[in-house]
Specification:
Elements (H helix, E strand, L loop, with lengths): L5 E7 L7 H11 L5 E6 L18 H12 L2 E6 L1 E2 L2 E2 L1 H10 L12 E7 L7 H13 L3 E2 L5 E3 L6 E2 L2 E2 L2 H19 L2
Parallel strand pairs: 1-2, 1-3, 3-6, 6-7, 6-8
Antiparallel strand pairs: 4-5, 9-10
Length: 184
């Protein structure tokens, strides 16, 4: 039994001030069961990945991100789809998190992913790319159907996911993430 709330870390692959992905994460944070909290982590300060900056030269922003992941019992990641792939912001953060090679802080950590897009497909290609990257990092991906939110512009209002069907499906996935994180 934990003496502190379970912490999930939320990573949005979008830096926009009115990001749909950040809105979805905020919505999740407001609908979590008691004893669980979601910490949203901003990726804007993460520098571009450069292997020359590993080890003793790892940027402080990267060390802080790794520490935030290490403190969390599980991670919820949302990515937009740009040109049939995940966002560069998110890929860059994952590249940093994959290091040192074979020792990723995400290795064995419970992770749930979602994508959202103005297109009716909801970002399925980005979702697949994101999951492949997490597989390479040996993250423990939550077994749940793909969470893709199509036509997201009509489903987000005032910084929150308002579409009840999408929200319910997403929150069921988050409950699986919580179960997976709690089982170690």
């Amino acid at each position: 039994m934990m003496n502190r709330p379970m912490t999930l870390l939320g990573l949005s692959g979008s830096l926009r001030s009115k990001s749909s992905h950040t809105a979805v994460l905020r919505t999740v944070a407001e609908h979590l069961p008691g004893g669980v909290q979601l910490e949203l982590y901003e990726l804007a300060s993460i520098p571009l990945y450069n292997e020359d900056c590993e080890g003793d030269h790892t940027p402080l922003a990267v060390l802080a991100l790794r520490e935030a992941v290490a403190r969390a019992e599980g991670v919820l990641i949302g990515s937009p789809e740009y040109n049939h792939g995940m966002s560069g912001v998110l890929k860059n953060a994952l590249d940093w998190l994959s290091r040192p090679h074979g020792q990723s802080v995400l290795r064995g950590r419970a992770v749930l992913t979602f994508t959202a897009s103005p297109a009716f497909t909801g970002g399925v290609r980005a979702h697949q790319q994101l999951n492949e990257t997490l597989c390479a990092m040996q993250a423990r991906q939550v077994v749940y159907p793909q969470i893709v939110i199509g036509d997201v512009g009509s489903k987000v209002r005032d910084g929150r996911l308002i579409d009840e069907v999408s929200r319910r499906f997403l929150l069921e996935g988050v409950n699986r993430l919580i179960e997976c994180a709690a089982s170690g």
